[in-house]
Batch of 4 targets.
Target 1
Amino acid sequence: MIREVVLDQKRTRGQVWLKIVWQTGATSEHHVQRRVQTYRDYIDIDRLRQRIVELNAEHKMDAEIAAILNQEGFVAARGCAFKGENVWLLRTRWGIPTVKINGVDKNPMRWPDGSFSIQGAAAELGVTPQTVFDYLARGLLAGRQLAKGQPWQIELSDDQIRQLRNRVRRTKRSKKEAS
C-alpha cells in the first residue's frame, strides 16, 4: 500500500512533516506535533505566551493556569502535562509578573487572617527580611505561599515572638562581646 514515507523535522518548528507516497502514485502530506526538549522549539510558542498572559491578567495562579492550559490541549515542552512550575518558569522567562494575592504591589505588615508578611515578621522580631527568610529555611518559622513567587504568610504566636526576640538579643550581645 505504501511505497515511501518522507519525514522532515526541520520544516516547521515543533512539528514533523511527513509525506506518504502510495503504491498508486498518489501522495498525502501530514503535520504531526512533535515532542521538543525546549520551548525555543515549541510549535506555537506565541499562542502559548498570549494565553498565559491572558490567564495571568485574570488573576489566575500558576497551578490554575496549568490546569486550564491542559484542558485547552496545550502540552508542555517535553510532551507532558503542564504543572504550576512550568507556568512559573515561562512567566519568569517572559517577564510576566506574579499575581499579587492582595492586588497591590506592597504587602501589608499583617494579612487579614492575622498572619505576617515577611516585612511584618521582620519588624515584629526586630530583624531584617533576609533573617526572616533564613528562619523560614531553617525551620525556625513556619509560613506558606499560595504558589511560588507569591508573598509569604507567616504564623507567629506570642510565644514564638518572645523566643525569637530573645534569640536576637543573645546573638547581638554575643557579637558585641566578641568584638
Target 2
Amino acid sequence: MDLKLSGRRVLITGGSKGIGAACARVFLAEGCSVVLVARDAARLAATASSLGSANRVTTHAADLSAAAERTALAAAFPEIDILVNNAGAIPAGGLLDLSMETWEQAWALKVMGYIHLTQLYLAAMKDRGTGAIVNIIGGAGRSPRYDYICGGTGNAALMAFTGAVGGRSVEWGVRVFGINPAQTRTDRIISLSRTRAQIRLGDAERWEEMLTGLPLNRLIEPEEIANAAAFLSSPACGYVSGTVLDVDGGGAFRG
C-alpha cells in the first residue's frame, strides 16, 4: 500500500534501536528521509549503516533530557514533516523503590522531552499549516500498576497531553496522536522484566517468567508499532488526531 509519504522528512527520537530503528526502516521504505536522534553517536552510526539509503538518513547525537539540547535539535532540523517522539526508558519499581531523583531523571527525558519537542515542532508546523506528531507512549498509562508506577503515571500524563494538544492542533492543519505499545520485543522489555523478577521473585534471572500469558502467545514486534506509526501519519488516516491507539492484542480486556 502506497501511504503517499514519499519525500516527507521524519525525525525519530530514540532512533538507534528498538521501535525507533523499526520506524526508520518503515518510513524509509515509504520514500521518506529520516533524522535519527539518540545519545550514543556510535550506536546511531551503526543503525544508520544497517538501514542503507545513506543519502536519506541523518543522525544527531543528543541528550534529550536536557532542554537546551532539545532546543538545539529543533534549530538544527526545523523543516520536519513528521515528529516521532520515542525516546525514554522509565525504570520499573514501586513508589517505595524509586527515589525522587530517579523520577525526575526519567520524566526529564520521556515526559518533559515529549512535551518540549512537541511544543517546538508544533509551532513550526502551525506556521506551515501541516504536519504530524506521533507520541509512542505505552500501555501502562491505560492500565497503571504499582510495580511500574513511575512509567505508568508518566504515560498517563502523556496520554492526556496528546489528547489535549491533538484536539486543538487540527485547527492549524497539524495532527497529534499517540500509540500505546504493550510488551514489545526490545532490549527494554528484558530490562523491565529483570527488575520485576527481582522485586516479585527475588531473582532477576527469572525474568522470562514475567512474560507469560501474552496475547497471541508472543511479544509485539517493533515493526508492528512502526507500521502503525507510518499508517497513522499518512493521508490514509488524515482525520486522526488526539487519539491514542492501544496496540496490545486486546490485553486490556483479558482480565
Target 3
Amino acid sequence: MTLRDRIFDGLADKFAASLYGATRGELRLALLDHLLPRTLPLEGQPVLDIGGGLGQMSGWLARRGHAVTLAEPSREMLDRARGSLADFNVEFLPLPLQALPEQAPGPWPLIVCHAVLEWLADPKEAISVIDELLAPDGHLSLMIFNRDALRFSNIVKGNLGKALDDRLAGTGKRQRLTPISPLTHDQISGWLTERGLVIEHVAGIRVFHDYLRERDPDEATLTRLFELERRYCDVDPHWRLGRYLLYSIHKPDTSGSSE
C-alpha cells in the first residue's frame, strides 16, 4: 500500500474533541507551557508554525509577542484557526510542508512543527525541508508521536500480537486518528544528525497519563498526575515513554570561517 500524507479535512470536529477536548489535550498544552519557555529562545522573533492545525500553538506564541505564520494544508482546520485567532498577529497559509520552501522560504529564526511528521508518508524528507527553512543559528521545536509508546500502550491493552508484529501504524483511512508514521527517538536523532541539527533538549509529553487504568480520574488525581508529568517529563528513562516526544533543536551557524 502506498502511503499518502494525511490531511484532516472533514475531521476537524473529531480532531478537536479527541485531542483537545479531554484531559490529555489539557495536559499536553500544560506541559508545552511548562517546557517551551525553558528550552527555546522566545524573544519575539517571527515564527513559522508548520501544520498548525486549529491554531493552539500559534495563539500561544502570538500572545507572547511573536508574529506567527501558520501553515496548514486542511482548509477546514485553517478556517477554525483563523476564526479563533482573529485578534492576533497571525498570517495564514493554506499550504503543506512540502510547498513552504517556495512559498514561505524565510529563513526562519524559529520554527514550530508539532504532531505533523507522523501524518506524512515521508517524515525523513520533511526534516530536510524544515532544515532548508530554518535560519543559521535558528531553533526548531519538534514534537512527534512516539512509536515506542504506541507499542507499550498496545501491550497494556492486551494487543500482544499487534505489538509483536509491529503493526502499529494507522492506515489513514476513515476517521481513525492513529498516525500513519509513528516514529522512534533513534529515527529522529539519526535524521537530525545527518542534517547537522543539534538536539538541545528532549522531553516526553504524557509519560504517565495514557497508561492509567482510570480513564476519567477525579480532580485531585489529575492534580497529582500533572505534577508527576512535570517532574519526570525530561528525566531518563521516563521521557522515553511519552506519548509524544518534544525536541528543542538548534541549527549551528557554520557560515563563519576560522582563521
Target 4
Amino acid sequence: MDLQLAGKRALICGGSSGLGRAVAGALAAEGAHVALLSRDADKLQAVADGITATAVGRAVIVPADLSDHDALLAAVDTAEGLLGGPIQILLNNTGGPPPSGVAGLDPDLWRAQFEGMVLSVFRLTDRVLPAMRAAGWGRILNVASSSVVEPIPNLGVSTAMRASVTGWAKTLATEVAADGVTVNTLLPGRIATPRIQQLDQSVADRLGITPEAAQAKSLETIPVGRLGDPAEFGAVAAFLASPRAAYVTGSLIRIDGGAVRAI
C-alpha cells in the first residue's frame, strides 16, 4: 500500500533513539522528510545520516531540550526552514521520568515533569497547528503508554503525565477534526528500547534479581510472548500519519502484544 507520504514534512521528538527513531525511519522510508529533535546533537546526526543514506526521504536535525520552551519553539522555526515549509506531521514523544509511586512526592518534581512531559507537548502542538488547519491537512501523533489504560506499578508519575496528554489529545481531536487534522495517541506496551532496559534494571534492583529475570517475568504477561520491535511501532505510526488514515482521530492505539486485558 502506498501511504501517500512522499514529500510530507514531519517533526519527530525524541528522534535520536527508541520509538522516535523508529517512527522517523518508517516515515522516511515512505518518502517523508523528517526533522529529528532531541538534546544530543551527535546522536541525532548519526541517526539522520543513517536515514538519509538508506531511505527515500531525508533527515535533518534540530537539537533542543523539551523543557526549554523557547528553544523548542525556535527549533520548529529551524526545522521548517530546513524542510522547506510548515510541519505537516508532528510526533509528540517525551522521555519518561524515573520509576516511582505518586504519594508524598515533592511538588517541584511534579512541576518539572509537567513542564517537560505535558506543557512542552501543548506548546509545540500549538506552534504547528495553525498552518495545518489553514492547509486543511495535518497529523498529530502522541506517544503515551499502555499505563493510561491499565496503570503499571511504580510508574505513577509517568502515568499521571501521560494521562494528562491523553485527555488533552482527545479534546483537541474534536476541535480540529473538521479542518482535516487528526490527533491520535499511541499506547506502546513493552517495546525493545533503551527505556525498557532501564525499567527492567529498576525492577531487578528493587526485587534483588537480574535484569534478565525481570524481563522474563514481564514476558509472562504478554500474550505474544516477546517484546515488540520498534519497527512494528513505527509502522503503525506511519499509517496513522498518512492520508490513508484520514478517518481515524481521537483514538488510543495500543501496540502492546495484547498485554492490556481491558476490552
